[in-house]
Amino acid sequence: MLETVAHQRLANGWDDSLAAGMSESERLLYRSNLLGADKRITNYGGGNTSAKVIETDPLTGQPVEVLWVKGSGGDIGSMKRDGFATLYMDRLRALKGVYRGPEHEDEMVGYLPHCTFNLNPRAASIDTPLHAYVPKRHVDHVHPDAIIAIAASAQSRALTAEIFGGDIGWLESHGLFTWADDAKACYELTLATIQRATDWLAARTADVPAFGGPRHQSLAPDDRRAVAARLMPVLRGLVSGSRHKVGHFDDSDAVLEFVNAEGMEALAAQGTSCPDHFLRTKIRPLVLPFDPARGNLDEVLAGLPDRVAAYRADYAAYYDRCRRPDSPAMRDPNAVVYLVPGVGMITFAADKATARVSAEFYLNAINVMRGAAAVSCLRRRRWRAASRWSPAGRAASARPSPRATWPRAPAWCWPTSTRPPHERPRLRWPPATAPMRSAAVAST
Ligand SMILES: [Zn+2]
User: Fold this and answer.
1) Which end of the chain is more exposed for a tag (fewer CB within 10 A), N or C?
2) Residue 193 C-alpha to ligand 1 middle, in angstroms?
3) Distance from Cα 236 to the centre of ligand 1, integer Å
4) pLDDT of res. 78
């Protein structure tokens, strides 16, 4: 299973004959869609891409340098050209003149609309300055599972140096930043960097059974579906409450490897490694005590009401423990992810697309756990720290106050919006020096 799940190579989808006929902004969209199509490269909605392009100014008719950067919202895998914000580079550079210091960083995001090129209504995201100030024409920022596995490990800084030597820097943030002066070179550098981390992790795990090795055998595909088909209507009734839910079932190899593993219950109980993941999946899944060898489905079904109620009570207690005066109201306390040994993973959400995306996020979490557990113990302190923020999650209606709820009090440089602090790039405003040669990996 390791060979098929952990060692798959990233495919280079770049087609020169297609790209040759594109404008620079079209090539940026092409690159973005290619990167976002592989969820190992970035999770749904995660990451952003940019290009600095010479455009014609609509007022003067003169050539002008414009930053095309993925705007707020959306997903780089499915975005269209209207998903990019466009901003005058000279105005972005001029922002350095109004910058009043780290204690006033919040106000800087308010200046971004003043930099808009061509009346583009797409709002610029908080990552825009980072893309603007990297002195290369193309920048990718993605959240690759292999990189997050390294970033989530206790020795992420040392591991980054070991894996990449001096080719890559380390930022106190998260994910991967890569840059180049050419769109294809940037894409290929992103792939190569992730592949290097993936290969390094694969070499480390070659003789180590994933998640402690198998404990259960998978049922045959038809039997898996039959079990899921009996579980899902009952689960849906139990978790729908005042709002209807739709379920999604996933029995892919990577999911089965995890749900069948000896270490699955312990890892699942620890919670996911990254706020990006748990905002979609809740911090823990609900593991159903199905034993594929015994086929105890009736017993599992009979115990479901109590198990679901216990999960809700745990979640409510967790929320009460972590709540702050400014925390939003508690979210739906039901589990999103249900793991069934021998069968697969079931997710529930308000609609099919959200249920599928939640499953994709938990698969990201599985991939991170596979890699991180292999290299070192995960950063438990940070998990706990991150979990304090969770009940006030991004999906909640009110704005959480990351400064108030994030215990590390970091000096991130772009503290605005509802974005959790782990997502705030910590290149200083303005960057004191030119960034590293080609790329930066960053810790969660
Ligand atoms: Zn990010």
Assistant:
1) N
2) 16
3) 33
4) 95
pLDDT of residue 86: 98
pLDDT of residue 282: 82
| Contact present, 109 and 95 (Cβ < 8 Å) | no
Beta strand residue intervals within 298-349, DSSP E: 337-340, 344-349
State the CATH class of domain 2-207+432-442: alpha beta
Q: How far is the CA of 50 from the centre of ligand 1 (A)?
A: 13
CA dist 147 and 443 (Å) reads 9
Asked whether the beta carbons of 340 and 289 are under 8 A apart, the reply is no
Residue 6, classified by CB atoms within 10 Å of its CB into exposed (0-12), middle (13-18) or buried (19+), is buried
H or E element: which one contains 184?
helix 183-205
Question: Cα(307) to centroid of ligand 1, in Å?
Answer: 35
The predicted pLDDT at position 289 comes to 97
Please indicate, yes or no, whether the overall pTM of this predicted structure exceeds 0.90: no
C-alpha of residue 235 to centroid of ligand 1, in Å: 33
Residue-range domain boundaries for the chain: 2-207+432-442, 221-392
Q: In the prediction, which pLDDT does 272 show?
A: 64
**CA end-to-end span of the chain:** 28
Q: Note the helical H segments in 40-182.
A: 89-94, 128-133, 145-151, 156-164
Give the pLDDT of residue 417: 28
Q: Beta 439-442 vs 168-171: how paired, if at all?
A: parallel
CATH of 221-392, one of 3.40.225, 1.10.1740, 3.30.70, 3.10.600: 3.40.225
295 CA → ligand 1 middle, Å:
42
CA 64 distance to own-chain centroid: 34
Walk along the chain (444 residues) in steps of 10 and give the mean pLDDT of each run.
58 96 97 96 92 96 98 93 97 91 82 96 91 94 88 80 80 78 96 92 82 94 98 96 90 96 90 66 91 97 97 90 84 93 97 93 87 58 36 32 24 26 38 46 53
Domains 2-207+432-442 and 221-392 share a fold: yes
